[in-house]
## 1
Amino acid sequence: MARIESFRDLIVWQRAMAMAEGVYRLTSEYPRDEQFGLVSQTRRAAVSVAANIAEGHGRGTRAAYAGFLRIARGSLREVETHLLLASRLGMGSGEQIDGLLVDAGEIGRMLHTLIARLREQPALP
């Protein structure tokens, strides 16, 4: 297994960044009147997932890292909720939304595993 030198080496961060890209692409198709509503909220939440993973990794303690990962997990649930609402409202491509929801589920499992491992390890990965 490769040594983690930076948050950029974390697969979960890479996946969260890819999801955020997908969210930006999807929300660019939303109606113009949603620019300051669902578009903005969904994008902010998606970026928050990757940003909190990165910030937590840089904090230097397991407890702080785990706390930021839990915040990332909360932001991920927010993204899922926004995507489900967009689907109900018929915004964007259903196929894109479904793909992003699958990605979110996988990222959520990865965050859960990382949080659990932090509890078990004496030092940061």
## 2
Amino acid sequence: MILHRAVFPVAGFGTRFLPASKAIPKELLPIVDKPAVQYVVEEAVAAGVSTAIFVTAEGKSAIEDHFDRNLRLEAFLAERGTTDLLEVVRQVGSMVQVVAVRQKEALGLGHAVLQAAPVLGDEPFAVLLGDDIIVGDTPAISRLAEIHASTGAPVIAVMEVPREDIQHYGCIAGEPVGDGVWRVLDLVEKPAPAQAPSNLAIIGRYVLTPAVLEALAATGRDTSGEIQLTEGLRRSLAGGPLFACTFPGRRYDAGNKADFLRATLEIGLRHPELGPSLRRAIEELRALGNC
């Protein structure tokens, strides 16, 4: 099944990356030679998405600009004959149709998804979080789309994490129904390890339906004043099934500084042009006893 629309919530302040994110959206911080959010959009496009709906906030317009044409820059590169860079710039500017909506208050992920409702229509849609970069030969979101196509139900991505780390994630209770697939029985947002129903953490990939939007619209704010997507999904269980699945590829938490650096290192080592020189640099540091 091809999903035509994907929502990218990018309205956050990026406080974990201050001061780097003070004037530059954290989503545009580069991993090797591409901004972090481009990896996520490319995953969606590879799965067939043609419209990217960015849920933005004040100071985030540079994200939209990145995926737009820059005719002055293209003319500059053309005049100088740098056709390789010209092709890269044109490809980024034409990979997806961009729609931007504003989240005027920081009221949580569920609230952010609701802001996209007026432009989503009545079709299923994907939600991809820019903090979760998943690199692999197959788009991770395609795995969710396949399960949605066979069940008609919303699908969320999960992965096993150490029990002590589950407090940083949403978490599911579920019954296995296939290889790496669970029917979700309940969801809990950031449970204490001792109270967590499993070590299956919810990762930032979702295929949702209009019914989930209806459940979200009826979801109140939590004790922190936010509307949580996890709680909206939990509420949607009363109206029909919800499935969870694992996904292909290597996942990096780009909202975590250490994992952001790991992503830069591992993706850099696989880069056809930069990989060899980066590997030599690491070997030199090892020889000096610095790593």
## 3
Amino acid sequence: MYCPFCRNPDSRVVDSRVSDDGSSIRRRRQCTECGRRFSTVETASLSVTKRSGVAEPFSRSKVISGVRKACQGRPVTDDDLALLAQEVEESIRASGAAEIDAHDVGLAILAPLQRLDLVAYLRFASVYQAFESLDDFEKSIEALRREYPAGRPGSLNP
């Protein structure tokens, strides 16, 4: 870690604190050359492995853009999508894995999206789970109707 003031490559850690959500560590450092203090934040990297075998960093914005298509025309706000992406990332990080399969990211999206909007969930699930016929839609809708018999906004119940 280079000192941001004098570019000296050596510093010592004066204090370390875990963030409130536990996802990062804030370290207070002091340069051994100029004596000035600065802070660094450390987070664990999370990689997503695609079907092709290529690994890339996890991106909340990719989760949001994928879900946004399913939410098109639905009463879902950008804040709702940001919270969903945060929930997805937190559930993936809670697994403790540094690398996760892209398919598992999709699975992590399904539950929060189902709670957010059932129609958007059905749209996303139809692509993600590769629905091939109307029977696939009907089975999924019936399962949702059993799970949410009273109906709610975004529900499939009349």
## 4
Amino acid sequence: MNETEKKVMSIYRQTLPPRVFAGEASAINHFAWSLLAIAIGLILWLAIALINAENQRNALMTKACQDRVFAAETDTHCLAFVKSRAHWWEHLSYALTHVR
């Protein structure tokens, strides 16, 4: 390096903000935001599972998936695709308010 480059580099180094330790690269707390994102994802996943379980429970209670050939049996293919209520939020609200 020649003298001019050394001067430019020293001027550049002086304009950088001081760092207390190596982990202080940003002011954002990434750990807390990551925990929040994971918690929201877990809550959404559990809500979807609860909605599906309540949908199937309601279909079994109302006998919406009764087998046409054998009246005492349940059509398992129907349980996978049945819509026993009009909206998903009805399943969620019923499941959250009717806990035993």
